[in-house]
Amino acid sequence: MKFSKILYTLLLYIITFVIFTTFNGCGSKDKELELTFIDTNSGANFQWFIKTKVIPEAEKTLNIKIHYVVSSGPEIIQRIKTWKEGKGDIHILLIKPKDLVDILSSDIPLETLYPDKVDRIPNITKCLEEYLTSVLGNNLNGRAALFWRSQMNGICNGSLIPNPPSSWKELYERRGEWTGHIGMIRPDAKSSGGRRFVYCFLHAFGIDFSIPFEELKNTSEWDDVWNKFKELYETMHKPLASEPPILFNQFKKEDVWISVYATDYTLWSRDKGMLPETTKAFTLNDGVTAGADAYLVIPSFILEKKRQAAYDFVNFLLSDEIQLQLISTMWQYPGTEIWDKVPEYVWENIPRWEDIKNTRIRITNNEAFNFIREHTMEVIK
Amino acid sequence: MKKITKQSLVTFSLLSPGLLAIGCLFFYPLFIIIKNSLAFEEEHIFYHYIKFLSSSNGLYVIGLTCLLAFGATFLSICLSILLILILRRKPIGHNFFKTLVLAPITIPGLICALGLLLFWDKNGWMNLIIQGIINRPIQVNYTIPGLLIFYTWLFFPYTFLITFSQVESLDKSIEEAAEVVGANRMQVLRYILLPLAKPGLLAGSIITFMLCFGAFSVPLICGGDYRPLSVSIYTTSAIYNRWDEGSAMAVIMALIQIFFLISYIRIMKRAR
Q1: ipTM score assigned to the predicted complex
Q2: Domain locations in chain B?
Q3: Cut 0.95: pTM above it
């Protein structure tokens, strides 16, 4: 048989298969309810988790079809703004606090989940009320549910650093022990890890970010703390990592022993073999920035039957089963208060929530944060 | 004045959808970038251009980009000539080797960059071999020589492929004639082969040069503190959110590339 004939036959089989599966799919559409779940928060690790673990389990449990789509916050907000009553085609959103504030300020109608829908979403009562009533200082009034809490922490190779520092000040004072092995991502990288590192360091050494930046940068403390940071930089591994995978690779090669970065992504990457097995997270009690917490919202302008299914899906996402998976396999702090159910081995890898909850820093001075982003590399040279 | 004929109108109307598509898809985005780069609010409309070109960092970045592009193009030409001399004699497995040479083109740049970092790392394969000879690892990653090696590895296939096809098409009897009149191998290479292969070499190297000039993934991942124009544009636009400055830098980059392209074409014309 000629090669072209084989190719032709193969092509015919493929076309038949595609047509068959398409029509088969169309047929089944009428049978089950479909929801569109838009994710504007997750990184690579959580996209994988939601797509391969959460969605299949939810579809099986709730008997609905869920279309999981990754998108960006500002784009989705623009889309929702154009909706009319009952015409909305996004049924659940997973968003960052900053995007949630933008939604609230743009008057996009959202379903009030707490306390109005406690009977449909009983698991929402496991979220702390303070997270349901306000977000970044704005009134939330129960219009979102907290899915997870993200946190940066100290990261170290436990076999090389059995007693990691308990504060930024201790990290600075003991820097000589780890000369050439302290890692950081460039502050001008796409990842904000490096910028947050510098922000936390400045904060720990007494920089008051509540002062307007124009005033702050002229204070003597500002210069003093930057000099301290330069001293720390002298002991860092160089060149600084351009993006997180490079930092992970530096850990893997044991060039870097200690750093400060997102707990969940680092430990997930460790489990994938990208960092040494002995990598663990530790807390710095003078404060580390919170990551992007994840909120679940249901826009109001959707069909009633879809809205009911969306409530069920939110309840499923806040169930102990999913929330425990968040912390025990993805190393992310859950949105609900289920600490007594968390397996003990988790705390051997990440700090306990009670140890970090009062030291979480929010970035409030955007001008200072922009300065760190644009000028750190010049200042430290 | 030339008269507009019915024929020319028909031709224009047939061409207009194509011209419109080119205008929308190519010139409009280009126009947006140029418009973004102009500072209408500042006292000088070319404020961003002046700011970048008058800063020491701006000139350093342009210099670094040119150094990397020229260096890697030169190395690509040398490597291509060497490989062509070996492969045109058709040794065993030459077809397999030719396919292997194409590998860098087929692999995404980001994967190449990470692979190269691992390969040249102090615990990488190359350094394991080198340590067996000189007892210490050599620092290649995050250095300018390292970037030159990485650029060459990634972009030399373009020079190689075009030059190789040019050399393959040469009449072997010309070389034989030179050998008959007493020319040795080096003389054949210098006076016969290279001049005849020059158009192919120039055409291939210009593609390599342009790709080296605009390289992004490799210097982003493997450059360390050496960040050429493409990475600086990305950082300024996407990280600092200063799209106007980034656009000005992009226009400067395009102008430099056009300048080198025109120079190259002139050299090529002379070579012919």
Answers
A1: 0.73
A2: 58-271
A3: no
